[in-house]
Fold this sequence. Notes:
The protein is globular, with a radius of gyration of 22 Å. It is built from 15 helices and twelve strands. By secondary structure, it is of the alpha/beta class. Strand 8, helix 7 (179-188) and strand 9 (192-195) form a beta-alpha-beta unit.
Amino acid sequence: MNIAIIDAEIIGKKKHRFPNLACMKLSAYHKLKQHSVTLKTDWGNLGSFDKVYIAKVFTSTAVPESVLALQNVIYGGSGFFYDNAPRLPNEVEHAIPDHDLYKEWVAQCISQGAKATEFKYYTDYSIGMATRGCFRRCGFCINRNSKSSNVHSPISEFHDPSRKKICLLDDNFFACKDWRKILSELQSTGKRFQFKQGLDIRLMDEEKCKVLSQCKYDGDYFFAFDNFEDAMLIERNINLLRQYSSRRATVYTFCAYDRSGVYDTSFWVNDIIGIFKRLAILAKYNCKPYLMRFEKYKDSPFGKLYSDMATWCNFFPCFNKMSFMEFCEKKGGGAIKSAEDFLVRSPELRRYFYTKHITKT
């Protein structure tokens, strides 16, 4: 069979940060059956293939409707179906990923001027999931239908010994009762590893902090701080982690999601107040925040303010060296006006808007 695989996120792009794990598994499965596999990077000539698989992670990634209507096209992933995305067949799900699927595309991007370091997840890492699922059932999450975290595959299922490092995409690793055994498996590879999707800081205790600090971890720890109501617990556990490791934590700071579904002015005001209070806590503990906006922020009367906050916060040299108001003054284009207008409404944020979060680098 002649098989085409399309990672919709890379169509028309000279770089994309991360490969699609489902695409790599599909490629491995069909190559094992001696089928011809092509990574297609455009929408042309799809009729010449026996099967065309299309995957995407993000709902905003565009795929032509005319392509999806083709008889030989099969498509899937959270970008199409969000929390109702169908699972891969078991024999595909547990195929050892084809880490070379993107090799030619990466080489082409680099030949066109992209930096090789921008493709490290394509070239340096074995990628997979040791566990799947989460018990939190957050309404905004693609795992909201899940009830627990369970072992999904052994590390050997996706570990490529020729690659320098390991990247795990687990949903909520420490919610799995077998976390100790899995960390031992990871350590036995001798490779540095990371949990790209983040770890649940709310589940950290002394044992987890100690064991994690003894691992050959790669880069920052990634956590999330979704609700200001969790501030006391999160502060306590960051403090606990600091007793065992000085490694920086990058913390996803979720915002613009109203759990009541009302999205009135009161919600938007309180959400922005909560953002700045969370950022102050993270700076206090030398954490690197990353503001993640639920798509509803576009409908907010403070949409521009959300965009300016994200630009300031997510470019760490800005967050680390200048106050939000200093950033707005430098940015111009109405940024200072939207910030000042909000302070008229919520003057208690003045000290947060004018605070410099100078942390260790």
